[in-house]
Amino acid sequence: MNQPNPAPEHTGSPLESRYRRLLWAYPGDYQAERGDEIVGTYLDTVDPGRRWPSPHDAVDLLGAGLRERLRGYGALGLLAALPLAATAALNTLVAVSAFLLLQVEFEDPRFARLDPVGPFQTLGALIWLGWLLVGLTATALPGAWARTAAAGGLLLTVAVPLVAAVTGQPGPPLFVLAPAVALGLAALALPSHPGWVARSLPPLTAGCVTAASVAFSAAENGGNMFTSYGSTPEMLAMAGGLMFALVLLVGLGRALRADDAGLWATLLLVTPAGLFGADQLGQAIWGTSGGGPAPTTFAVTAGSILLVGAALLAAALAGQAARHQTVRRRVLDDACPTCGHRPTAMTGT
Question: Per UniProt, which keywords does this protein have (predicted)?
């Protein structure tokens, strides 16, 4: 097959160099074998005068490169796990958002010794309302619209604390924001064509949490157990543990059908689940300072959780790659040296 040649005006141009830099996502041998063909194909489709790859081309190249790397590791199940992890992350955010809005943000700010922000205790209410809107979008407009809304929710989660710091308005604490950002990153991979079960989960989750909150408030008979963010660390830790347990249960069920995507999704959600308990873990390890871990000790605890999560995922990838290479060598060793035909037991034919 003839490799496409880029248009003369693009040969040696900055645009060609920038496309080639995106090839770092591919394995080295794949770059050497197919790099010129890939770059030539993209350059043939760009408009005259363009100096930078379009965002669509950049995402397409990086995604394809990641897919090739995972194929080399025998870990394509990790890609298949992204929509499942995203669905779990979004529904956890919806549940936490409904809980914090009803049990904290609508409570009397005097309980938290804060100046109110309109009808809410803090600017954090904007974050939780935003994620509830993302959940509604995922139900009504799944696919690209839902992923765009998730990106907006993530930006809002990051921006609100900055606005709070600049304006002097109260905002949610770091032990709430850290897992929300981690889950928001996971939610960016929401599926393009979710089934009706996945689409119905956000409103169902929000409805269940709302009903539970109303019932809990009625059972308190005028009491106020959750009056501020400072009274929620235990519930947040439970939410993280419940999310992890449910995804693990789904993963084990799918593993029985030779589908490892659920187990990969569990590994992807180890970090956000751990961050939900970072406040409690920090207090247990480092002690307390004014009712909670000091910012430095919380940062150390959260950083340790991030490192552990990354190490677990890296170890799983390394183990899968080693098994994949062992199987490949065994298949090649059993192949006929003359024709390359493999035994029926190995080929499955």
Answer: Membrane, Transmembrane, Transmembrane helix
Copy the structure tokens of residue 311.
């190490």
Dist CA 9 CA 216 (whole Å): 69
Model pLDDT for residues 194-245, shown as the tens digit of each residue? 999 999 999 999 999 999 888 877 776 655 677 778 888 888 999 999 999 9
> Under a CB-based contact definition with an 8 Å cutoff, are residues 178 and 281 in contact?
no
Q: What is the pTM of this model?
A: 0.82
Distance (Å, whole) CA 58 – CA 52: 9
Distance CA(277)–CA(283), nearest Å, equals: 10
Instruction: Tell me the two tokens of residue 181.
Output: 């950002």
Nearest to 40 by CA among 59, 15, 64: 15
DSSP code of residue 308: H
Please give the structure tokens belonging to residue 56: 């669509």
Residue with tokens 């000091």: 294
Rounded (5°) CA angle 58-60-66 = 100
Please name the residue that has the structure tokens 């187990």. Answer: 263
Please state the domain extents for the chain: 78-181+199-225
The rounded radius of gyration (Å) of the Cα atoms in the chain is 25
- Distance in angstroms (rounded) separating the CA atoms of residues 39 and 24: 12
Query: Which two tokens mark 47?
Result: 């408009």
Cα(247)–Cα(273) distance, integer angstroms: 11
pLDDT per residue as tens digits for the range 157-180? 999 999 999 998 888 899 999 999
Residue 341 phi, psi dihedral angles, 5° rounding:
-70, 135
The residues near 40 (Cβ < 8 Å, ≥ 6 apart) are 3, 4, 5, 6
* Cβ atoms of residues 107 and 228 within 8 Å: yes
How are the residues of the chain apportioned to helix, strand and coil, as percentages rounded to the nearest 5? 75, 0, 25
